[in-house]
Specification:
Blueprint (H helix, E strand, L loop, with lengths): L1 H13 L3 H8 L12 H8 L4 H13 L4 E6 L14 H9 L5 E6 L2 H14 L9 H15 L9 H4 L2 H10 L9 H4 L2 H10 L7
Antiparallel strand pairs: 1-2
């Protein structure tokens, strides 16, 4: 079975263009079984536009080279707290949704080992080449995702990061009180927080 999986990985990576393939090998910088935040991938790959990062993630996911955990949108169905909105506003939202951003990417352990093996045979230095800012972001994302209360003790820049805040309120809705004010008013963040703990609505 492992041989068939490795053969499938080879076929999938061969279908990538050279630039996509090189960036896929860079994922060896992440620890096995770790979650890869969107912002970390965007910084690691050095894209100027977030759309480029989204396109690459989609290309890798379409070839089953990684898995997208969830999608963040600029709006979300929030009927319980939007009773005062007009039907015109709702229809406009439904007909013209904004771009979605993937969060929480993961790889199967065999995919990760495959990437590390290939990277080690091409350029061993790539195995330890995660930039410091990317490593810091991944650490903060991991801490807040495991324990929402950790958001209280993180730096302001991370309290204002939607991906990190979403990770925190998924495990502790009350962590919403430690998020930046803009995210305390973000519908999607509030919905996730309230689903986890109804008392989060007071924040």
């Amino acid at each position: 079975q492992r041989k068939s999986i490795l053969a499938s990985l080879c076929i999938s990576t061969d279908a990538l263009d050279d630039g996509q393939r090189a960036k896929y090998w860079q994922l060896c910088a992440f620890e096995e079984d770790s979650v890869m935040p969107f912002r970390a991938l965007h910084m690691l790959w050095g894209h100027d536009e977030e759309d480029d990062t989204i396109d690459l993630i989609n290309a890798l996911a379409d070839k089953s080279l990684l898995t997208v955990g969830a999608w963040v949108t600029g709006w979300v169905a929030f009927d319980e707290f939007a009773a005062d909105e007009s039907e015109d506003e709702e229809s406009e939202t439904e007909s013209d949704p904004p771009e979605q951003t993937p969060i929480g990417m993961t790889m199967h352990n065999l995919q990760h080992r495959f990437v590390r093996y290939i990277a080690s045979t091409t350029d061993p230095a790539d195995l330890v080449s995660m930039p410091k800012e990317v490593e810091e972001y991944v650490d903060e994302f991991a801490k807040c995702s495991c324990n929402g209360e950790a958001l209280q003790y993180t730096e302001l820049q991370f309290q204002a990061d939607k991906e990190i805040v979403l990770g925190a309120v998924q495990t502790n809705g009350l962590a919403l009180q430690h998020a930046a004010s803009a995210l305390q008013n973000d519908r999607e963040v509030v919905l996730v927080a309230v689903n986890q703990n109804g008392r989060a609505l007071q924040h």
